[in-house]
Design brief:
about 0% helix, mainly beta, seven-stranded mixed β-sheet, four-stranded antiparallel β-sheet, about 60% strand
Length: about 120
């Protein structure tokens, strides 16, 4: 099992910046991909960015060039960060941390979600 705890959401004006953090604990040795998704009211949850073990990143089209995802490991905890710059009102959503564990033959053995953190961008 993996437990995910997010922090860093809040209210910011358009053009501002925020940094989201997610700490993963538990069976972190088999985590392959960590990422951020978001869901605005009335919309489906969408990928913001993810990062695989080894550092390969993937971004949603609407955040390319503005958001940066990174990953770190310390003291049996895996961290994933999302640096968000030049925020726009349309970035307003609940942001969820995600972690995917892979087994020995690269099959998905776990798909975990954090509780979500609200990001609100005012115009």
């Amino acid at each position: 099992q993996v437990q995910l705890v997010e922090s860093g959401g809040g209210l910011v004006q358009a053009g501002g910046s925020l940094r989201l953090s997610c700490a993963a604990s538990g069976s972190i040795f088999s985590i392959y991909t960590m990422g951020w998704y978001r869901q605005a009211p009335g919309n489906q949850r969408e990928l913001v960015a993810d990062i695989a073990r080894g550092g390969i990143t993937n971004y949603g089209d609407s955040v390319k060039g503005r958001f940066t995802i990174s990953r770190d490991n310390a003291k049996n905890t895996e961290y994933v960060y999302l640096e968000m710059n030049n925020l726009k009102p349309e970035d307003t959503a609940v942001y969820y941390c995600n972690a995917i564990r892979l087994g020995t033959v690269r099959q998905i053995i776990g798909d975990y979600w954090g509780q979500g953190t609200q990001v609100t961008v005012s115009s």
